[in-house]
From TrEMBL:
One Pfam family cited in the UniProt record for this chain: Ig_2
Keywords noted in UniProt: Disulfide bond, Immunoglobulin domain, Membrane, Signal, Transmembrane, Transmembrane helix
InterPro entries referenced in this protein's UniProt entry, alphabetically: Ig-like_dom_sf (IPR036179), Ig-like_fold (IPR013783), Ig-like_Receptors_ImmuneReg (IPR050412)
Organism in which the protein naturally occurs: Equus przewalskii
Domain of life (superkingdom): Eukaryota
Name of this chain's protein: Leukocyte immunoglobulin-like receptor subfamily B member 4 isoform X14
Region Disordered: start-end pairs: 358-382
Transmembrane listed as a keyword: yes
Keyword Membrane: yes
Lineage of producing organism: Eukaryota, Metazoa, Chordata, Craniata, Vertebrata
Signal sequence coordinates: 1-23
Length: 382
């Protein structure tokens, strides 16, 4: 009996030093990713593995790949190592484990790390049903839709590193794929901001681009919800007024610009009118008037012929004298001579013209014509 106990004691002493390694009693390391486990395509990411100060080497395994996937020496002070990925692509998306080596053997594997790449597909749409305003303690339904046929959707909450909900998609009435997530109960002391992603169940770590965020507003009771609705309506009215004011200001500016463009054109036309008026002055009432109408021209010729036919025998013709008194006498004499003729007489009042007695002879035809031009006047019939 004593021999048996002694043998068992010796066996325990000999096996004791190897028991922690064989039984895996070394503490398992901790694994995490920076800046996070959900990384946009082509962005850098670093995987950290932390063990003990006695660690001599760290290894990283990726499920589905040859083991070890990577190995690194510990950084000072020796309790952790980092594994860098310069550009995130589909080949780095997956599930990772890390472990470390000490003098007596290998540690246990860490918990799995899901490294996800986003940006592989177009973003889905996320909406809250029936409204993003929820009473405290109530639930809300978030609907995530995708037109490219995603067969799985992931809903994430801001501030949490792990996916909050994962659901397989269901076809909707429009033929798109969708998933309905029920969130609650809601509490007012938290901020509820959600995004959703789509993926293929055969590649669960390759996601689409994130949807636009949806923030849920939690009110204390129905009265708070009513106040929130009224404040939303007031903010909408304020936005409408701002838009209306902006449109009016733009209209006034355009009208002012149009007036500035038209004023120089108007002044230019007025200047041209003044110049033409100065170049071609209108005849005065007491002066000679020249008509461009054919009827008036014919009448002028007839009147001129009548005057020539009714001239007195002494041959009274128009001429210019030097004094105003003689002009008046000559005009009166001409009128008296014409009135004595038996024929129909046309009376004319001539302004600024005088009568000149001209004795013409046959020999004067060969002479040069007088230097002064002949003047024809429009005679008004009385």
């Amino acid at each position: 009996m004593i021999f048996t106990l002694t043998a068992l004691l010796c066996l325990g002493l000999s096996v004791g030093p190897r028991t922690p390694v064989q039984a895996g009693t070394l503490p398992k390391p901790t694994i995490w990713a920076e800046p996070g486990s959900v990384i946009l395509w082509w962005r850098p990411v670093t995987i950290w593995c932390q063990g003990t100060l006695e660690a001599q080497e760290y290894r990283l395994d990726k499920e589905g790949s040859v083991s070890p996937w990577d190995r690194q020496s510990p950084l000072e002070p020796g309790d952790k190592a980092k594994f860098s990925i310069t550009y995130m692509t589909e080949q780095y998306a997956g599930r990772y484990h890390c472990y470390y080596l000490i003098r007596t053997g290998w540690s246990e594997h860490s918990d799995p790390l899901e490294l996800v790449m986003t940006g592989a597909y177009n973003k889905p749409s996320l909406s809250a049903l029936p409204s993003p305003v929820v009473t405290s303690g109530g639930n809300v339904t978030l609907q995530c839709d995708s037109w490219w046929g995603s067969d799985r959707f992931i809903l994430t909450k801001e501030g949490e590193h792990q996916p909050s909900w994962i659901l397989d998609s269901q076809p909707d009435l429009d033929g798109q794929s969708q998933a309905l997530f029920t969130v609650g109960p809601m509490t007012p002391n938290h901020r509820w901001i959600f995004r959703c992603y789509g993926c293929n169940r055969n590649y669960p770590q390759v996601w689409s681009k994130p949807s636009d965020p949806v923030e849920l507003m939690v009110s204390g009771d129905s009265e708070d919800q009513l106040l929130h609705t009224e404040s939303g309506a007031q903010s909408g009215l304020t936005w409408y007024l701002k838009v209306l004011i902006g449109v009016l200001v733009a209209f006034v500016l355009l009208l002012s610009l149009l007036l500035l463009l038209l004023l120089p054109i108007r002044h230019r036309h007025q200047g041209k009118g003044k110049m033409s008026g100065a170049a071609d002055p209108q005849p005065k009432d007491g002066g000679l008037q020249i008509s461009s109408s054919p009827a008036v021209d014919a009448q002028e010729e007839t009147l001129y012929a009548a005057v020539k036919d009714t001239q007195p025998e002494e041959g009274v013709q128009l001429h210019h004298q030097g004094t105003h008194d003689e002009d008046n006498k000559r005009v009166k004499y001409a009128q008296a001579a014409i009135s004595e003729a038996p024929q129909d007489v046309t009376y004319a009042q001539l302004n600024h013209l005088t009568l000149r007695r001209e004795m013409t002879s046959p020999s004067s035809q060969s002479e040069e014509p007088p230097a002064e031009p002949s003047v024809y006047a429009a005679l008004a019939i009385h």
